[in-house]
Amino acid sequence: MTPTLITETKPEDWTYISEGGATIVFSYRRPHNVQFSDHVLRLRKVAHGSSDNTLLDTNSEQPDDPMIAFQENIISKLVPSEFLPSFVMVVLDEDWLRSLVILRDGDRPAERRQTDQIDVRRTKGVLATDLIGGMPIAMEIKPKWGFLPTEYHLSPETVALKTRTCRFCMHTSLRVEQGAVDTTYCPLDLFSSDDTRVRKALGALWAGWYESNGSLNNLRFFVQGGMIKPDDDHSVQLLAHFFTTDGSTDVQNLRQSFTSVLAQALLDSPVLSLLSTLQRTLDVLDVEGLSKLYTQTLPDLPYNGLGSSVPDPSMDEWKDFVRIYHSDYHSWNHTVPNPRHLRHYLMAYLLSATFKDCSIIISPKSTQVGSFDVTIIDVDIKSMDRLGKWERLDRKIVEHYKSSGSQRRCIDSQRVTQLGCTRL
């Protein structure tokens, strides 16, 4: 099969769309091309100062981007393909990438530009289905954690907080103290499958988007392929024409229409229920229980943080884990985890983190007015060396929330029937 070459396009054919911690995304914006039209280009990033020291050797064959194999062999065994974008490998060129940086780096958020850049030494990238550029409007939601942990593996110091207040709401409290914009959004409302609570969550997401002028990343709007902000009057008018019958740009009317339309789209889709199930079944120990199992199983190793002495899984190991997840895993006694299963529990937590950190794209179906496609994106593989950081962050979040005196109660609808998420 003849490889797809990025040099068959020009850097100016690509427009910046968005980025996450590991990748940056560009959309093809030129006349029709059978290989590139209706696709986005996903490129790996590298921290400033590390590009010249990368282990990548541009003179030898580099492997395909791991996200292709990870989705094909792992994610697609957990999520039906209809809810995932398609991926294909594209051959890159260093000079082409450097030209792209010169052209588009100014379109990136300032805080991102200060931290990292496109890894111009990569020789392979990813072309993915363009879920944004071909649509008059599209929305990206980052749902985050959709469950409360069970009490079995929590310490006496954390059990009351963690089983009452969700991780996102506690983390929001810490972020606000650090200068972030506050939000009343609670993921457990969005994941509840209850119309009233889903509308409440969407209203909070809208308010966060509007009040932060689009700086909060849990909700993003794309109009005609470009990300918009609330202070863009022309784009807001386009939103109004899509969501309202009279084209009113009144903020409250637009918010109400948005929540009504999106709530129905999400309630009609199985995606949020699927994500919630994957998150909670893969993270059955909480990071506290995982840490205890780790130290009990490996008592002779110096403890430099959770997962510090564990190599990343190979693709064959990931395949084996998915097979176990679909069979023996659900019959294990997770209340008293077997030390022999430590590596599988570590992998399960990594995979849960992937689904906690993913986004969904909601876009109108071209063939059916009033209907929407909901697609899961950003399901990247996580590394073992992240576990120690997550363990420390968990401790910091809980300690801050405890000292703040806040008592927000978040209701996990899969554990109790009571509705609501309220600040007391």
Automatic annotation (TrEMBL):
It is an enzyme of class 2 (transferase). Coiled coil: none annotated. It holds the Pfam family Ins_P5_2-kin. GO terms for cellular component: nucleus. Signal peptide: none annotated. GO terms for biological process: inositol phosphate biosynthetic process. GO terms for molecular function: ATP binding; inositol-1,3,4,5,6-pentakisphosphate 2-kinase activity. InterPro entries: Ins_P5_2-kin (IPR009286), IP5_2-K_N_lobe (IPR043001). Keywords: ATP-binding, Kinase, Nucleotide-binding, Transferase. Its EC number is 2.7.1.158. The keyword Lipoprotein does not apply. The EXKPK motif is conserved in inositol-pentakisphosphate 2-kinases of both family 1 and 2. This is Inositol-pentakisphosphate 2-kinase. It comes from Suillus fuscotomentosus. The lineage of its organism: Eukaryota, Fungi, Dikarya, Basidiomycota, Agaricomycotina.
